[in-house]
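Subgroup meeting minutes
Present: P.N., E.W., G.H.
Scribe: E.W.

1. P.N. recapped why we're keeping a running log of single-chain structure predictions: easier to compare across weeks, and new members can see raw inputs and outputs side by side.
2. G.H. added today's entry (212 aa).
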Amino acid sequence: MGAQGGPTRGITGHGAGRGRCQTGTSQPAPCCAIFFTAQVAACLCGCPAERWARLDGRNFGRKGRAVIYLDTSYLVRLYYEDPGFESVRALAESDHVACAQHGQAEAIAAFHRKYREGTVTLKSYRAMLAQFETDHQAGAIRWLPAGDQILQKIRDVYAGLPATVYLRGADALHLATAASQGLKVVYGNDTHLLAAAGYFGLKGNNIIPKIH
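Output recorded in log:
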């Protein structure tokens, strides 16, 4: 996941303006997550926050709306300030977010790692889990299931994959799932996943600025 950051902070909502603390100030709230409720904001930083309007997920079926595929390293940045979270959240605001279904388990495991390593408190960890569940129930992220077509694609790719390419099974699931949806680009911060994207007919893209 890279270097550790801090709890979620305010960003511009999709069609909803910039989130603010209930103080009447014009500055972004220091606690508002990309998908947030007042409960999780209070747990993370102790101040109230407005709910972001994009959460309901009702626009997923609208024509002309693009789907952006995020790997788990990017999904976690919607809930936690790992380096580059600002760029990831700006991307997520632009259109619908999708990920392979197993990304749920990967994201939850990443949250737990932050708790296990002492990066977040138990209260913050539970708040992230609760918010993640809320977003799941609301359809804020489109979870794409695996199937025979996807598994066949993985078998075909591995059959011809050069020995120099390091491709983990979970990353292959991400790439094959994105390809099965007719997507052309996957976004992530994992160098191995991005390097293998071309074998699935995809372009791997990392928009997080490099830290010098």
